[in-house]
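Contributing new records

If you add data, match the layout below exactly. Sequence lines come first and carry their own label; structure lines follow with theirs. Keep one chain per record. Anything else will be rejected by the validation script.
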Amino acid sequence: MAIKKIIKNAFEQVKEVGSEMAKSSVKQVKETLSPWEMIRNSFSETDKTNQTPDAKLKEMQAKNGGTNTPLDFDKLNKSYANQDLQKIQMMKQRLFQMVKRDEEKSLQRSEQGKAEKQRQEAYEESEKKRRMEEQKRQSAMSAAPEGKRTSRNKAWFK
């Protein structure tokens, strides 16, 4: 029985701690992401934004103790431009390969179509010859004797 009470108490404590944590986390998020605070901070910093880029750079260096090296924007721009050119070249090469593959496929399809047409024509031609030979054979087998019927022949047929 004592174990059940301990377990029950533990679950009640977890429930209470969880509900308190949920409430406090909501408050913290609300305070952190408060739109009024964001607006107020943006208006207070507008007087600082009217500075020139050099002044901003000097202010940032003074704030950081001057330990950071300034960025070389020209070098960064060249680096990004080089990366962009490489990506463009890769895309061009990929597009060229796709077009080449499609052309090969269409050429192969047209050749297959021509070969199929030739096979069909050859089949039709052989079928036509076979029918004609069959027709000749049937006409030869079922042909009635030709010629005059004479009295001698009449007796034979009776």
